[in-house]
Amino acid sequence: MVNITIPKYPVIIPLGSGNTQTAISNNNHQWSVSIETNGYVVRSLSPNDVTEQFLSWFNEPNMLSGLNLENLNFTIERLRSFTASFDNYRNYFLGIFYNDEIFGFYTIDVNLVHRTGSITTGIGNNKFLGKNTLRLTIDAVLDYFYASRNIEKFTARILSKNYAMLFNFRDNTRFFLEAHLKRECRAPDGRRLDLLIFASHKDELSSTQSNERQTTT
Question: Rounded to whole angstroms, how far apart are CA atoms 163 and 48?
Answer without folding.
Answer: 32
